[in-house]
């Protein structure tokens, strides 16, 4: 094939790709904007602004090699677009913004695959995959990393012989009290190390094994470093009698320590760097594929990409609401109630069709029941959302969280909250249609299934609370007795009635 013909095909492929990506961006602009908004407002994800330029630069670096590949239309790429559009559809139906963003980036990558061909896609795999770092991921790791950091810090302090008392994420030393808060999770360190380590491995190593090993280290090292950082800060505060590492310097020490650790990681990694492979330019391979009209590939790619959005619009129109209402059980067995209550607990569930709370009593025991009912998921109101809370953030804080199986058919998330000079034992779970779960991802999957099957039973967040005075078994037994005596609490659709 002549260079003129090859250049012509590249021009058409670039124009086609630019047009399709423009349409995809216009159709899914809200998803793209949600990413940009996160980059702008959350320091952990500011790196998102440079991911696309870095990816383009990495492709441009290999332009001499990539330009020798003949662009061809790939049906495998079209399949990848369809899968990405389907993922966006499901994620949109249940309101999982993270997966919508992943689906959008996947559509961008798959469009390149479809319009430039599999050979080009494989040759530019890393620069294209690097685009996934634009997705603001990692927030889900924060609770896990907070607990891990707290446990590591206590373990390290015990090695020094200094007495320490741990109560969940709160640590007490003879010199003062510490809380392992969200900023101590180290998630931003992990994300930054992962992104930088991936580029370092790609640019400095040629073998897959070396690249994989260094990327794994770039994930593990910051986890260990974050634990050491937290321990170091507590020690500085302890030995300075809480004069140091308790204010802004707390963060300064953390970033300085992280910077030193990253420098050492990359410095050591350079000892095993491979020599740069000399690029040998060869003539493009002759292809028997005839030049086809570019309109057909463009139309096919666009139609497949927007199919998810069109299906989502249709399914949203099929949803109904105001068919069910919360129905709390009354005077069941030895439990008297419900009694309407005024409490400082104050669950927050924006957009809920109903939010009811009531108190039940049996002798000296008391249980509060809370139910938030969502019959139709909207942008203004979703059952599973980071803005929803079963407690007032200004007055209560999570001391410890664990899973607990009450009966064969009911598992709960068991939380001890403290605030206002007292503690509460809380059992929480989600009821999606007639299915129960404590896992938000499973809950989202149930929501998607019900929407796709046009089921209209609605979704609920349910919580039972009782005073906690230090005896977990006693408070737990109070809630167990209540669930056994009031079976509608755990029965599928037991707390709603059809209007």
State the major sheet: 8 strands, antiparallel
Q: Roughly what percent helix?
A: 40-55%
How far the N terminus sits from the C terminus, by CA atoms, comes to: 71 Å
Secondary structural class: alpha+beta
**Beta-strand percentage range:** 15-25%
Taking all residues together, what is the mean pLDDT?
A: 83
Radius of gyration: 28 Å
How many helices does DSSP assign?
15
Note the overall shape: flat
Count the beta strands: 13
Provide the low-confidence segments as ranges: 279-291
Describe the structure.
The chain is of the alpha+beta class. It folds into three domains: 3-137 and 293-317, no CATH class; 140-272, no CATH class; 324-498. The chain is built from 15 helices and 13 strands. Strands 5, 6, 7, 8, 9, 10, 11 and 12 form an eight-stranded antiparallel sheet that branches. A three-stranded antiparallel sheet has the order 1-2-3, with helices on one face. A two-stranded antiparallel sheet has the order 4-13.
SSE inventory with pairings:
Layout: H1 3-27, H2 29-41, H3 48-61, H4 63-66, H5 75-94, H6 97-116, H7 118-123, H8 125-129, H9 142-160, E1 165-167, E2 170-173, E3 176-179, H10 187-204, H11 208-239, H12 248-269, H13 295-318, E4 324-326, E5 336-340, E6 354-362, E7 365-374, E8 397-407, E9 410-419, E10 422-432, E11 435-437, H14 440-452, E12 459-468, H15 472-485, E13 496-498
Antiparallel strand pairs: 1-2, 2-3, 4-13, 5-6, 6-7, 7-12, 8-9, 9-10, 10-11, 10-12
Helix pairs in contact: 1-6, 1-13, 2-6, 5-6, 5-13, 5-14, 6-13, 9-11, 10-11, 11-12
């Amino acid at each position: 094939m002549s260079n003129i013909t090859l250049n012509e095909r590249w021009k058409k492929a670039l124009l086609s790709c630019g047009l399709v990506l423009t349409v995809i961006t216009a159709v899914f602009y809200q998803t793209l904007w949600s990413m940009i908004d996160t980059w702008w407002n959350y320091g952990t994800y500011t790196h998102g602004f440079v991911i696309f330029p870095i990816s383009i630069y990495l492709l441009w670096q290999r332009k001499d090699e990539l330009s020798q590949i003949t662009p061809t239309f790939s049906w495998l790429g079209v399949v990848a677009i369809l899968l990405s559009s389907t993922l966006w559809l499901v994620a949109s139906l249940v309101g999982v913004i993270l997966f919508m963003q992943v689906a959008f980036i996947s559509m961008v990558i798959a469009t390149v695959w479809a319009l430039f061909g599999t050979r080009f896609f494989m040759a530019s795999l890393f620069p294209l995959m690097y685009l996934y770092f634009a997705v603001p991921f990692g927030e889900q790791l924060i609770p896990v990393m907070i607990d891990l950091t707290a446990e590591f810090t206590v373990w390290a302090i015990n090695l020094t012989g200094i007495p320490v008392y741990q109560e969940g994420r709160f640590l007490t030393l003879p010199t003062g009290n510490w809380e392992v808060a969200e900023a101590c999770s180290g998630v931003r360190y992990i994300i930054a190390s992962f992104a930088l380590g991936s580029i370092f491995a790609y640019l400095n190593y040629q073998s897959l094994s070396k690249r994989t090993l260094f990327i794994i280290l770039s994930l593990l090292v910051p986890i260990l470093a974050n634990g050491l950082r937290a321990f170091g800060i507590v020690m500085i505060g302890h030995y300075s009698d809480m004069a140091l590492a308790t204010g802004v310097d707390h963060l300064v020490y953390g970033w300085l320590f992280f910077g030193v650790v990253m420098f050492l990681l990359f410095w050591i990694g350079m000892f095993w760097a491979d020599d740069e492979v000399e690029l040998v330019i060869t003539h493009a391979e002759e292809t028997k594929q005839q030049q086809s009209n570019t309109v057909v590939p463009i139309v096919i790619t666009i139609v497949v990409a927007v199919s998810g959005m069109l299906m989502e619009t249709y399914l949203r129109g099929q949803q109904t609401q105001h068919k069910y209402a919360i129905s709390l059980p009354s005077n069941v067995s030895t439990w008297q109630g419900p009694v309407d209550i005024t409490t400082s607990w104050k669950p927050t569930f924006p957009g809920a069709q109903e939010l009811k709370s009531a108190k039940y009593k049996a002798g000296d025991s008391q249980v509060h029941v809370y139910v938030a009912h969502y019959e139709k998921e909207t942008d203004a109101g979703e059952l599973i959302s980071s803005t929803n809370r079963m407690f007032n953030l200004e007055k209560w804080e999570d001391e410890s969280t664990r899973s607990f199986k009450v009966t064969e058919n009911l598992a709960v998330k068991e939380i001890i909250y403290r605030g206002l000079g007292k503690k509460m034992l809380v059992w929480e779970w989600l009821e999606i249609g007639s299915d129960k779960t404590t896992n938000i991802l499973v809950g989202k999957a149930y929501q998607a299934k019900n929407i796709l099957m046009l089921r209209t039973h609605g979704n609920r967040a349910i919580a039972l609370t009782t005073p906690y005075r230090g005896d977990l078994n006693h408070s737990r037994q109070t809630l167990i007795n209540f669930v056994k005596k009031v079976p509608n609490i755990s029965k599928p659709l037991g707390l709603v009635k059809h209007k």
